[in-house]
Structure formats: C-alpha cells, structure tokens
Amino acid sequence: MTRHVEVRVTADTREEAERIVNAAVAGRVAAGAQISGPIASTYWWKGEIQRNDEYVILMKSTTDRLDDLIVVVKEAHSYETPEIVAAPIEGGLADYLDWITEETTGSPKAE
Description:
Elements: E1 4-11, H1 14-26, E2 32-45, E3 48-62, H2 66-76, E4 84-89, H3 94-103
Helix pairs in contact: 1-2
C-alpha cells in the first residue's frame, strides 16, 4: 500500500523556492507543491541565533519517492543543511491521494 507524505522545506528566497519546486515536480518526485511566505524564522545555526525571512514549501509525495525528493531538494538548495521534514498523510480524499501516487510514478517531464 502506498503511503503519502507532505514534505516541508524552507528556502532563502522565492526564486530559490520556485527552483526547488520546479525540480521536484518536473522530476516526478513530488506531485505538486505550494510556496508561502515570507515567514520570519528564528533558529540556532553554528552557535548563534539567526533571524531571517524565508519561504515555506509544502510538497506532496509518497514514501517510495521520499529519498529521491530529498536528493532533488538538496541539489537545488543553497543551504548547507536545508530543512527537509516529512509528515505522513493519514487520510484524505482518495482521488487526491491516488493523483499523488500517479504523478510520482511517471517519468520526469521537461521543464
């Protein structure tokens, strides 16, 4: 049985977020994505508190494609250690979940 996940990533700029989303969707490792922001982020990095505006990306995928999605995000991302976290989708509209599965099992599409 296919399990579905929502993957959250943050990016430094909207342009970077769009680059990540385009790579993930074109590569068929995410069925779709939304970009929100800017958001105000506060976090520890290399022993100091950092405060930056960032953009949040939410992508829908499957557990089967999660490792590949992580590779695509890391390749497209400027951060040394980008936020990439996945949460299971425990339920939802069956047709939508089927769409996620269908769109992440096809061949990559040209951008």
